[in-house]
Amino acid sequence: MTGETQDEGPICPLCGRPIPPEAPQSLHHLVPKLRGGKGGETVRLHQICHNEIHATLTEAELARDYASVAALRAHPRLAKFIGWVAKRPPGFHSKTPGKRRARR
Question: Its Gene Ontology molecular function terms (predicted)?
Answer without folding.
Answer: endonuclease activity
